[in-house]
Structure formats: structure tokens, C-alpha cells
Amino acid sequence: MRRKGVWILLTVMIIAVIAGCSGSGNDDNKLVIGIDDKFAPMGFRDENNEIVGFDIDYAKAAAEKMGKKVTFQPIDWSAKESELNSGRIDMIWNGYTITDERKEKVLFTRPYLENSQVVVVLADSPLATLADLAGKELGLQSLSSAADALDASPIKAEVAGVSEFPDNVLALTDLKSGRLDGVVIDEVVARYYMSLEQNTYKLLDESLAPEQYGVGIKKDNQALLDELQKALDELSSDGTAAEISTKWFGENKVLN
Fold first, then answer.
1. Residue 167: per-residue pLDDT
2. Suppose 121 and one of 125, 152, 216, 218 were both cysteines; which one would form an S-S bond, judging by CB atoms 3.0 to 4.6 Å apart?
């Protein structure tokens, strides 16, 4: 009985090893993409709780070119680089702004979309310019490029206060409730919500900072970056990128 028990244990261990090897093989063919699932129209949940958006369609198309399966993993956006460097995700792909600070932490694809940081206020607000923000309460998403843009602006020293939120939806909710006077936010996101809730918001006449979106890859994974960039280039050349952009923005905004 003791000898039989040893054989049973060895058999279980061998099966576990085989299963582990099989799993590793599948992982080589899978991409886990970290997203903020409340960042419309780039990546967000629709009325059926399905993850949709421009970046979602774009990533799926790129993964198909690469011959890989893709999984979208909602993450705490304030910990996105930690998620990447820990290996829990393979890419940061959801309106991820290219900055010099982030270039020190991750590898970036070439920019694929232009954006800017703007200030959204309620449609009936008397505020019209950045100078009007003096003494006002602002909100923005925590550890986002909106915070960087505001920090770099002279108006930062004149505002009454800045509240940080886990996502833009919560910031806009506080704006509508009157707890904030304005929200610093990506223009593509602002215009999406303005299209959904017409006559609710308006943008100040001036923007804070122009910027570009890219896909973030772990520093030591140049091979994956090159493979992804090749796929993105193919999507531009065969017209797929333009089709996806037109679906979400009504025009081709993708940088070639």
C-alpha cells in the first residue's frame, strides 16, 4: 500500500508538470492588456457590461495580426506601471499618454493618436478661459496626464483646490453635483461625454497641453514592442485602423 501510494503521488506530480508546461505554451500565445474600464470612448463597459471602445477594437485587430489571443484586464490606473513591471499584464493600452517620465519606466510604441488635456465645465458656467479658474475647485483622475498638465500650468497656483478621483466618471459626477467648478480631462473623453449628454458640458476656450497616446510595454521586452509596432503599421497600411477610428470618432484620427 505504501509503494502504491508513492506511485500515485508520482503520477499526480507528472500530470501537474505536464499541465504547467501546457499552460506556459498557451501564455506565449496570449496578451493581457491592462485598461481603465471607465475611459470612454477608448475602453469602457457598455450597457451589457461588455468591454468596448476604440482601443479595444484596435488592440483586438493588432492581436489578430500577431496571431495572439487577447484578454483585457481592468486595473487600478494609478498602479498601471507596477502592474506591467510585475508581469500581471503585458501591455498598458487605454489612452496611455506618452511622457518623458513614463518613458523612463516603459517602452512605447510610436504615437497612434493625438489628444490634449482640456477643462470641462457645466454648460451654463460663466467660466470661459483658464484665467477664470482662479479661486475655483477642480477635479481630475489620480496619477493621470491631466495632473501633469495642470501641474505644468501657471493656473495651478491660483486654483482653490484640486480633488483626485479613481476615474473620470466620478469626477464628472462631482462636477454635475456642483462640488467642482471644472474637471481636467482628456479631450477625446470630454467630447465623448459631451456627445452623450448634450447641453450638459462645455470646454474652456484654451487647452492645457497637447499630447499623444501610445502603447506601453515592459522595459525588457523589445521583441514584443517590435512585434506590436509591425502589427500597428499593417493596420494603418491596410485601412483597418482608419475603419476603427471612423467607427468611434466619425473620422480617421490614427497617426500613420
1. 93
2. 125
| Contact status, residue 158 vs residue 134, Cβ threshold 8 Å | yes
Low-confidence residues of the chain: pLDDT under 50: 1-4, 6, 9-26
Q: What secondary structure, in 3-state letters, does 197-246 show?
A: CCCCEEECCCCCEEEEECCEEECCCHHHHHHHHHHHHHHHHCCHHHHHHH
Query: Topology of 114-211 in CATH?
Result: D-Maltodextrin-Binding Protein; domain 2 (3.40.190)
CA dist 242 to 11, 54, 87, 98, 208, Å? Answer: 54, 11, 31, 21, 27
Per-residue pLDDT tens over the stretch 23-66: 333 467 999 999 999 999 999 999 999 999 999 999 999 999 99
Across the strands, what pairs with 79?
none
Please tell me the predicted confidence (pLDDT) of residue 256: 75
In 3D space, the residue among 48, 49, 9, 53 whose CA is nearest the CA of residue 33 turns out to be: 53
Is 30-112+214-249 a domain of CATH 3.40.50.300?
Answer: no
Give how far Cα 70 sits from Cα of 20, 47, 91, 146, 216, Å: 20, 22, 11, 28, 15
First to last CA, the chain: 69
Which one-letter DSSP state was computed for residue 142? T
